[in-house]
């Protein structure tokens, strides 16, 4: 016992100070792909190699519309391998309240050979996204007044590969220590304030997910976790899956990533209940 105590004293406090301090993410970790939009010469190679369609482009009347959808991105880095205008970062605080906030779109004037001559419209978020974001903030304020000091989460695996579950499990350890915020994982939706849903929703899990949502008392929150939860990921919508979580339930917060690391999960959960501190 004394040896264990001695080791604990030598180690000191292991718990991260996040969100009071920036997330301590390895420089080797993969997060948001960063595009040098003004210098981007040709979106076609990256769009062609992207396995989920997170990068896509379409041409019309000499103008190319290029889009990056973080909700579909699995952070594989293939786009950065074929395009010098793209680099992978370790930025993980990517959670948003609306699906539109995960999309960035720019427009370019084209050369005769199909490359991009110049950017004529910088990346922007649709007006729909901004209006929905404002409504989300109003909802957040109402929920924060009720749940801000305590939150109970029911995690639902609707069809994931369990990559997201591994990261969620880490939240209960001493490094991330989810319970220091008064946030607890519970076994029953009847005890929950939030559903943390992973995976593309398989058709065999659709009814179970709806029943879980109905069993959760109001006011309730739904957080879609990972690329699969945000968009269907690699699987999309097919004979076996319904696709993204928002195709089945109303979603309050989206946490992109494949899988999102524990800091990304903390960011999304705290965003949902208005507990993010200013740094």
From TrEMBL:
InterPro entries, sorted: Complex_I_20kDa-like, NADH_UbQ_OxRdtase-like_20kDa
Keyword Ribonucleoprotein in annotation: no
Cofactor: [4Fe-4S] cluster
Keywords, alphabetical: 4Fe-4S, Iron, Iron-sulfur, Metal-binding, Ubiquinone
Domain of life of the source: Bacteria
Alphabetized GO MF terms: 4 iron, 4 sulfur cluster binding; metal ion binding
Pfam families associated with the record: Oxidored_q6 (PF01058)
Domain NADH:ubiquinone oxidoreductase-like 20kDa subunit: 161-270
Stated family: Belongs to the complex I 20 kDa subunit family.
Protein name per the record: NADH ubiquinone oxidoreductase 20 kDa subunit
Organism of provenance: Opitutus terrae (strain DSM 11246 / JCM 15787 / PB90-1)
Lineage of the organism: Bacteria, Pseudomonadati, Verrucomicrobiota, Opitutia, Opitutales
């Amino acid at each position: 016992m004394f040896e264990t105590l001695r080791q604990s004293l030598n180690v000191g406090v292991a718990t991260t100070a996040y969100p009071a301090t920036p997330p301590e993410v390895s420089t080797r970790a993969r997060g948001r792909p960063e595009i040098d939009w003004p210098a981007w010469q040709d979106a076609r190679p990256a769009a062609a190699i992207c396995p989920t369609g997170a990068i896509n482009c379409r041409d019309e009347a000499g103008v190319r519309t290029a889009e990056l959808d973080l909700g579909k991105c699995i952070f594989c880095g293939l786009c950065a391998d074929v395009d010098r205008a793209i680099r992978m970062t370790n930025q993980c605080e990517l959670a948003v309240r609306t699906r539109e906030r995960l999309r960035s779109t720019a427009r370019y004037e084209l050369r005769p050979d199909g490359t991009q001559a110049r950017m004529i419209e910088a990346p922007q978020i649709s007006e729909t996204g901004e209006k929905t974001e404002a409504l989300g903030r109003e909802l957040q304020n109402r929920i924060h007044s009720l749940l801000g000091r305590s939150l109970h989460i029911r995690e639902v695996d609707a069809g994931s590969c369990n990559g997201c579950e591994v990261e969620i499990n880490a939240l209960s350890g001493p490094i991330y220590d989810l319970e220091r915020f008064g946030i607890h994982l519970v076994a029953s939706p009847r005890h929950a304030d939030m559903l943390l849903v992973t995976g593309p929703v398989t058709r065999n899990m659709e009814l179970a997910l709806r029943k879980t949502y109905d069993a959760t008392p109001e006011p309730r929150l739904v957080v879609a976790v990972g690329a699969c939860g945000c968009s269907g990921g690699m699987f999309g919508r097919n004979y076996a899956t319904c696709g993204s979580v928002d195709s089945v339930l109303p979603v309050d917060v989206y946490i992109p990533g494949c899988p999102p690391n524990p800091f990304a999960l903390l960011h999304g959960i705290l965003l949902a209940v208005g507990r993010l501190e200013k740094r």
